[in-house]
Amino acid sequence: MAEILLGDLPESNAARLGEDRWAIRHGDDVVTWGGLADRARRRGRALSAAGIGVGDRVVLALPNSNALFELTFALWKIGATPTMVSSRLPRAELEGVIALAEPRAVIAAEPALRVALDALPPQFGVDHPDGSPFETRVSPCWKVMTSGGSTGRPKLIVDHGPARMDSANFAQLGIPEDGVLLNAGPLYHNFPFATAHIGLINGCSVVGMEKFDAERFLDLVEQFRVEWVTLVPTTMNRIARLPRTVLDSHDMSSLRAVWHTAAPMPPTLKRFWIDWLGPERVWEIYGGSEGFATTQIGGLDWLERPGSVGRCVGGEIRIVGPDGESLPPGEVGEIYMRREGVTPETANYHYVGAESRRLPDGFESLGDHGRVDEDGFLFIADRRTDLILSGGHNIYPAEVESALLGHPDVAEAIVIGLPHADMGAVVHAIVRLEPGTEASVDDLLAFAAENLVAYKLPRTIEFTDQPLRDEMGKARRSRLREERIAAMEQEKG
For labeling, which of 66, 136, 274, 363 is most exposed (least CB within 10 Å)? Predict the structure, then answer.
């Protein structure tokens, strides 16, 4: 497919596929290609009349919806840049993002936020009287994503790619042409946002989920003959825990590929999905919103190298030791990657509110630790900032979490290090059990001991009924750690 301006896409696909062919649906709300083109033009004219133009940022604090897509294409039509945030951000956090982004406007779903921030409503511009065609202007940055990162402090990730795209650049993802894609993740996260829009560029119809529900996911795949989908370990675990009779009663034969990302995948859960769908349909991608490189692995390769997240695609990997030295295969260090053709002077993104971990030769790091084998397959250990140093041992939380998550009663587990006068730090696990189950601390420790050496076992386990990860399966361990350290200090008086 030739390169296309993102602002022209709805009109182009309406002409090629037919104005009445549906483009996007969320529940009973369906918009056709012709309708998407018309609404993007009307909204674009309204946004332009509100003073928004080329290069301006507009914060979208919206849930998954057709309106969100109408607004992204409207912004691209007038050369502006969508800046994505969660619609559920507390006001203080949203104000922090706004201070960094300096947007021309904010469009928010929550009425209270609209009043407090003088924001526009999600339906803004849809009833503008003029829906006639006009020339697309190209934004210099096609998207800005926001992240709390491991620190919990907001930062912007400004993509340097202009709002024009050739889907051939993403051919390795296997997104079908003129097929059906299901988006099950929140669109304020990079991978769902990017892949849903790439699917539309490919002529796919996109089935969107406003909120994830495991059985509803199966229903949608079967009903719309979905071919391609992205999930995260949290949502994959919810599906895997459905009764086998429910899984077997749904036809999943249309699925060509299930991609997962965003968080470590417990090996037992990965094996379930490979056994259920077949290894050729289960894929994993590791990378960040920054886009400086990714690794990818299919189920067949994973079975030969359990735990790997694959080899680098379109770039190269370097494992770096504590003194900046390159480490040989098999040794754990900080993971640095570099995209082909990118130099420090031609980086494809920049941060606002943070500094990149970029080396002079263009290699960059997300802060994760890992190792590569002799064939270049990457294995993630954990984030550098989450590493627990206990009694001289390096303990990676992801490994302990994986051991706990293998227990059938455990829905979620987060592991952090808490300060200890003698050991430096000790392993503390926060666990949410499946409803109606009652595994005890002793049960979980005995289970984990089957796969962990003694020094990696949690010293303490805390039970909670609150979700531990967000919709993309990401956890803010730093916040959980700070809260518990503060409680410890308070107890000391």
Answer: 274
